[in-house]
Amino acid sequence: MTWNAAIRQGHRWLSIIFTATVLANFAAMARGEPPAWIVYSPLPPLFLLLFSGLYMFILPYAARWRSRREA
């Protein structure tokens, strides 16, 4: 598996984890004041999603830059 494929697959799994933590957050808030660890649990996957998403966003531009430099 290449790095690009691994990052894409990781991004997909992170999105599932992020969605689950957000749903758990809403469910906990419906029952009253949730503990701080539940409130802040969506943040680590969100930051990892940010970095992997930015990487995938830059990939096509980096390929163009590399092809122009080679030509």
Describe the structure.
With 71 residues, this protein is mainly alpha-helical. It is built from 3 helices and no strands. It is elongated, with a radius of gyration of 17 Å. The two termini are 28 Å apart.
Question: Keyphrases for this structure?
Answer:
71 residues; mainly alpha; elongated
Order of helices and strands: HHH
Instruction: Estimate the helix proportion, in percent.
Output: over 70%
Distance between the termini: 28 Å
Beta-strand share of residues: under 5%
What general form does the structure show? elongated
Round the Cα radius of gyration to an integer and report it.
Answer: 17 Å
Residue runs with pLDDT of under 50 for 5 or more positions: none
How many helices in DSSP terms? 3
Number of strands: 0
What is the oligomer described by this structure? single chain
Q: What is the makeup of the main sheet?
A: none
Structural class, by secondary structure, is: mainly alpha
Task: Write down the overall mean pLDDT.
Answer: 93
What topology emerges from the helices and strands here?
Blueprint: H1 3-30, H2 36-39, H3 43-70
Helix pairs in contact: 1-3
In short:
By secondary structure, the protein is mainly α.
